[in-house]
Amino acid sequence: MFNTDTVARFNDLETPFYYYDLNLLKQTLQACYDASSKYNFHVHYAMKANFDPKVLAAIQSFGFGADSVSGNEVKAAIDNGFGAGKVVFAGVGKSDKEINYALDADIFCFNVESVQELGVINDLAKAKGKTAKVAIRINPNVDAHTHKFITTGLDENKFGVDIWQLPSVIEALRATTNIEFLGIHFHIGSQITDMEVFKTLCVKVNELDQWFNDQGFAINVLNVGGGLGVDYYRPDINAIPDFEAYFKIFAENLTVKEGQEVHFELGRALVAQCSSLISRVLFVKNGQHKNFLILDAGMTDLIRPMLYQAYHQIDNISSDHGPSNMDHGQKVMIKYDVVGPICESTDRFREDVLLPESVRGDIVAVRTAGAYGAVMISNYNLRDRVPSVYSVE
Ligand SMILES: Cc1ncc(COP(=O)(O)O)c(C=O)c1O
Ligand SMILES: N[C@@H](CCCC[NH3+])C(=O)O
Questions:
Q1: What is the CATH number of domain 22-272?
Q2: Ligand 2 centroid to residue 333 C-alpha, Å
Q3: CATH code at 4-17+273-390
């Protein structure tokens, strides 16, 4: 991702910023497109992962749809060229204003997360003389084997309708007048690296597809959500996720009936590796027990390490690719706690990171920051919003 030219370019720029390798993004999208289109699978991009306009433009150019989680995301999807007919809207707490907006926009599908929400969408659609297309998000109680803060498909999670409540969904569907039932939706969690989890999901999807069929509700859309994880530990070796293996699992384990469509909602897998948070070393502080590398980026710019104990590779790219690299044949390696400038003790990217001896002004890259990075920025401590910088093509 970096070479002497990029580092020379960064030296002239104000930090911190998110750097996007648009070439890697396109290669990733191509790999996903090739692997999914083999089976006629439909991919929606979960835009909560990253809504940078250039990222959205690249994704949209591959013909993917959009998965949104708020009225503003529905709007952003449409404004950025995703056809309304390819936009889905999930979310456990959709406001009336958001539902009305999406109804007016004629989106493809509401992924409905409760019986009560189904009634509200029906009433709001009726008031407009419209029919809302819906899929029911089901909580299948499948353990995603991921961090507990980003698991979504267990009984204890707030998302979707629990299986024991499905008879009341059928009852509600029978009573609605302005709803077109399209199918069922699942999303069991994020950063899933154990592929067996997706097999377990397929078994549940097959059972529930059959169950709805038995109740007289034929399913056109099986939406299995997203969740495919990326390699935070080896971003250079595994820059592109194994989409072939991922889609093959669904092709082999889902029983797809004639005329049914299979939909996916990938976020992280498409965008995580294409971006790094680029920061400068402000100060090097040698304590009695610890050495601190104090960066000009902090938890306001990338909160994942502090919120989910998430691991991100950290590189001193001045040392790896800068002029100082040429000067020093032998690098002295030192363990640093890499921290930010925010007035919180938890503002630490990682502890005991083994890095070449670093000096004020060195440029540091926090890798694999393209998903759930820039979108979770806050202005705590009245921080400036971190801008985007793009690779030169
Ligand atoms: C409903 C839904 N779909 C898709 C996604 C995308 O997940 P991921 O970025 O893990 O692919 C999410 C986020 O977890 C989600 O909540
Ligand atoms: N923000 C989380 C992912 C949440 C996925 C949305 N349900 C992360 O950084 O890993």
A1: 3.20.20.10
A2: 33
A3: 2.40.37.10
Domain boundaries of the chain, sorted by first residue: 4-17+273-390, 22-272
Q: 262 CB less than 6 Å from ligand 1?
A: no
Q: Quick one: pLDDT band at residue 329, thresholds 50, 70, 90?
A: low
ipTM over 0.90: yes
Q: Residue 326 — pLDDT band, cuts 50, 70, 90?
A: very low
Cα 286 to ligand 1 centre (Å)? 41
Phi, psi torsion values for 276, nearest 5 degrees:
-125, 150
Structure tokens at 322: 């800068």
In this prediction, residue 235 carries a pLDDT of: 98
Q: How far apart are CA 82 and CA 67, in angstroms?
A: 10
Catalytic, 109? Answer no
Q: Does the pLDDT value for residue 83 go beyond 70?
A: yes
Task: Judge whether residue 113 has pLDDT over 60.
Answer: yes
Ligand 2 binding residues, C-beta < 6 A:
48, 150, 152, 190-191, 304, 308, 372
Tell me the best of 45, 190, 265, 299 to mutate to test the pocket of ligand 2, counting ligand atoms within 8 Å of each CB and taking the most.
Answer: 190
